[in-house]
Amino acid sequence: MAGPSLPLRVATFLTGLLECLGFAGVLFGWASLVFVFKTERYFEDLCEADAGLLSNATEQADCKAQDERFSLIFTVASFMNNFMTLPTGYIFDRFKTTVARLLAIFFYTSATLTIAFTSADSAVPLFLAMPMLTVGGILFLITNLQIGNLFGKHRSTIITLYNGAFDSSSAIFLFIKLLYEQGISLRASFIFLSACSIWHVGRTFLLMPRGHIPYPLPPNYSYGLCSGRGSRKEEKKTAEPENRELQSNECLSSNGESSGRAQQQNLRSFWSYALSRRLAWHLVWLSVIQLWHYLFIGTLNSLLTNLAGGDSSQVSAYTNAFAITQFFGVLCAPWNGLLMDRLKQRYQREAKRTGSSAAAVALLSAVPSLTLTSLLCLGFALCASIPVLPLQYVTFILQVVSRSFLYGGNAAFLTLGFPSEHFGKLFGLVMTLSAIVSLLQFPLFALIKGPLQNNPLYVNVTLLLTTLLTFVHPFLVYRECRSWKEDPSKP
């Protein structure tokens, strides 16, 4: 393989995997952290006076306002996790890797230090700290996704593996919960996470590029420890024309093939892709499935408390089980990437025999992944809607597999269906718009707790019916690819 040496690529890959696994998506272990916050009596003043100590069995209704406060914090943080990907994606595209990573480290360290020094008497800063934690985490993920470009035909596998590691990082809050139960304070755990910023800084300057990792890699490409001023200038000259050539050959457009003229390049601008039908249905697919996951994670502590009749020991056991299953997301996600890579290679061989469009072949490999993700979400939603406590073990498994496929499939689809030069902005746009939909989780939670009197049946049925819309996206992509196969001049 042309480009940097194998040891450097492997070191970059492994440290990137560790970074995503240990830091990027910790927010989604929220249920474990809420259990600790409740034990520390955060927002306990919102409970009714006769609720007693939270360590004893109490009725869920006694602390409805407390649950709503925790749900609101998660809603704001998960919203910012997606909403800020547009400006952070622009920063990554415009100012490149080093600036984006230094910004991520600043946000992440500020957040962990803020959480470390909060207490039951000063819990309001959590509304600021949790969003900052998620923004730093998503920047870590965005800057690491480009590492897939170092591994050629395994690109989709690496992307989905990193997204799986992002999901698995939610288990970090489980470790904090278990350490807390062994006598390690919440403050000590978050100070340790703050100290890890030294490692992030070192990795930024030693094992990551100053700019972007091009695809495909030019023969003289170097970065990190091996890069110098001269080689970077040469790399920029070499990589840019090769990237343009690749994009003109492989990237898709609904308006026709791009030409070398400036006028045609303008037609294939960012907005021509942002306003396309393909991206619109992808947004629907992502938003609906994501809403299910956010609503489930944000209300899990309340749900388990209700199903367990207020038994804190059962709530703790099921919370641990949920967090443990989340950790295995890193093992689930690569199967999605392997599926896409294998299908892409198979379709490419067929395309050489039949003369089909290479662009259609690349996109067609995403159809099974999109369909399977929708099916997994439907199964997860059905199990989550049945109020049987032991069944939630099945719900946890389907949820982690579905979520691993969701974000890995989302990133991989955007790399296959759109030019890489717009990846950061399109990724940010999709995540930002889906964040607006995710805000529905708080009013839905308030609706369940209020007018529906803790009965989520009507909300669950409505969301289940909405989930059926997600199957439209892979169907339309399949039709689009089939039309190109019949007429290769279309894409």
UniProtKB/TrEMBL annotation:
First-listed, main subcellular location of the protein, grouped into a coarse class: membrane
Entry-linked Pfam families: MFS_1 (PF07690)
Membrane topology note: Multi-pass membrane protein
GO cellular component, one term: basolateral plasma membrane
Chain positions covered by the region annotation Disordered: 232-260
Transmembrane domains' residue ranges: 12-37, 70-92, 99-120, 126-147, 159-180, 279-297, 317-339, 360-387, 393-414, 426-445, 457-478
GO molecular function, one term: guanine transmembrane transporter activity
UniProt-annotated location(s): Membrane
Biased composition (Polar residues): 248-260
Biased composition (Basic and acidic residues): 232-247
Key words of the record: Membrane, Transmembrane, Transmembrane helix
GO BP terms: hypoxanthine transport
SUPFAM superfamilies: MFS general substrate transporter
Domain of life where this protein originates: Eukaryota
Protein name (record): Solute carrier family 43 member 3
Organism: Marmota marmota marmota
Lineage of the organism: Eukaryota, Metazoa, Chordata, Craniata, Vertebrata
